[in-house]
Fold each of these.
Amino acid sequence: MSSVLPVAGAAFDLRSFNTLALPSQASGLRVLTTESEVDQAHAECLPHAAMHVLGGGSNVVLAPHIDAEIWHMAMRGIHLLDATPTHWLVQAAAGERWHHLVQHCVAAGWGGLENLALIPGTVGAAPVQNIGAYGVELAEFVDEVRAFDRRAGQWCTLAAPDCGFAYRDSVFKREPGRWVISSVVLRLPRQWQARLGYPDLGTWPEWQQHAPTPAGVFEAVCAIRRRKLPDPALLPNAGSFFKNPVVPAAVFDANRSRLQAAPHWPQADGGIKLAAGWLIEACGWKGRRLGPVGMHERHALVLVNHGGATGNDVRLLARAVQAEVRQQFGVWLEAEPVWLGFD
Ligand code: EPU
């Protein structure tokens, strides 16, 4: 049965529940391991009472005090639901570590997810921000998501089109407090094709010796990520801190003299996507600190906690970076993580 662990002074905090290692006290914490515990939590918690679901805490910024209950999803299990002539259907529980699921699938010979290796966080959090890396997004593999709808007070199964997936976005992210994801079903193609469009991956030296396999791509992605991105266990961070902004072509043209040097990619809707990491570096923020936080020295898009930071320090740095990028390039950077407990 779930239980609420009450906050008792400094004895309890959420520091170990977020990869930025920010200290934070909430009104209570429930660790939920089954769907019936979610039902129970919903029954005990007033329907409109503030609560936040937390998985691995790898895409959140926690305020020092959160006037809400935290529901930590700890359900486990990975199952092959079905094997059709064309696909494997794999169900994974919300509390599984995302990277563990990728490893499991690659080891079982079910390719598809390998480009998404080493992304921190849980399976339940993956659809919320529609995780993506190295030319692949989760959305293309989602068959359905099972979630409790706190507004309707019932369990639902959302087919992929109902999840409203977009770049680092979904209905789950747009409607905070409404959905509690318990499991995800992924549809992985039996006809595997390597996805090597991302420059570092396409030029990986191994492919000169061996044809790419899911396991080979998995190893390559892990190596590339380890080279570029700090390990949150060693240097607390939340991955990319800002989304890559998409600006209207008119804005790009108006600032062409400055923006054309930035890596940029025309989008189907006519907008231009810009590399936020490049913009931040061009503003001199790569490796620079503000108090106990800073932008990482190898990747300017990753905000890191050098030790002892609070959510307020993170907010100050995020605002400083946003202001400078806007001033220099006329482009607004939207933060990628969810802010919990801030005004
Ligand atoms: N760049 C710089 N300076 C930097 C960082 C990047 O000039 O300090 C340039 C790079 O040289 C490159 C471009 O910016 O030309 C893009 O950089 P990178 O390939 O590292 O990818 P990204 O756009 O910064 C995105 C995702 C990452 C994902 C990588 C690889 C977003 C917000 N981030 O980063 O996702 O791993 O592509 O596909 O879309 C995450 O979401 O937490 C995350 C790590």
Amino acid sequence: MKKRLLITGGAGFIGSNLIHYLANKYPQYELLNLDLLTYAGNLENLKALEGNPNYRFVKGDVGDRQFLEPYFATGLDGGIHLAAESHVDRSITQPDIFVQTNILGTQALLDLARKYKVPRFLQVSTDEVYGSLGETGYFSETKPLAPNSPYSASKASADLLVLAAYHTFGQPVLITRCSNNYGPFQFPEKLIPLMISNALEEKPLPVYGDGLNVRDWLHVKDHCQGIDLVFHGGRVGEVYNIGGNNEYPNIDIVKLIIKALGKSESLITYVKDRPGHDRRYAIDATKIKKELAWAPEYDFERGMAITINWYLENQVWWQTIKSGAYQQYYQKMYGQRERSFS
Ligand code: NAD
Ligand code: DAU
């Protein structure tokens, strides 16, 4: 069946992977990609879709109701909302834009989706809304929200507004909460592409704190599969966690990358910790597995090998990013960060 879907944030890491995934799986769908092209948005990620008559890009802000209205007025069969400020470190230095985009932008979309009776609206959220875990336990969908960073607080706020739209107005909304993604087209401010690209450039690999914070990694295509299943088959008003049971301390990830690239561990540089650094994330994905038969395809070893290879084969992609405004960002974030260990 033909459907017309709005994807917000489609020029970012997960959004661009999702658009490729949907364009490939549902070639008859019309995909409208709305993205502001902030520092994190990159149309290079979607080059392969240029000329595809069922794909269209529109540059715009999710908070700009006037601009958005005509796109809703033409009739949408659904919206998948990924546009966000997504980097925890940036939220510590500039929280306002996280409130603006992640909270107010989500409310603008919800209001328009209600006005134009969009039959399905999926909010792509994060496991970070649950806060931090100790050495044991998992995040299930019923765990109370306890966000710790301005980023996660803004995502938790947006999630609550989405659920309020369901409870108050009966709006057909859904939420997914995924763990850390890795894969192609990830902006090199995030751990894995930062470490791969720095290692290839023989630059220091900045590990925060003691390097023992744990993240639960999932290949981005497995996340896209989960979004697809929830969007098409999930129960409205419900939250679905997505995660692949792949917990690793950060230092293990860094060492894995060093080994795969044949570099020296002397590149590892322990730096001052991230303020309020969540210790451990781990997802319980039982609900999406049971209800929607979601199952990740990538085991971590294979997913990482393919990913490292992608960054090796696409050096121009990340070198172009790193040669621009990124350099000022890097100096600001890491230039003053004294070494905490050697
Ligand atoms: P990203 O930073 O790579 O991409 C975000 C995209 O949103 C960019 O293309 C940017 O231009 C766009 N954008 C930002 N502000 C906008 C605005 N005001 N209007 C329109 N577009 C705007 O982020 P990502 O890692 O791809 O994450 C996408 C979504 O998935 C986010 O909502 C994030 O919270 C969520 N998420 C990410 C992860 C992860 O590991 N990366 C895990 C779980 C959930
Ligand atoms: O859990 C899902 C979340 O994962 C998403 O909601 C966020 O959008 C996404 O950015 C990611 O957040 P993290 O803060 O976990 O990802 P990041 O890649 O920034 O950091 C991963 C871990 O690596 C974290 O413990 C901090 C550490 N780190 C990160 C960087 C950039 C370092 O040690 N050194 C670094 O230079």
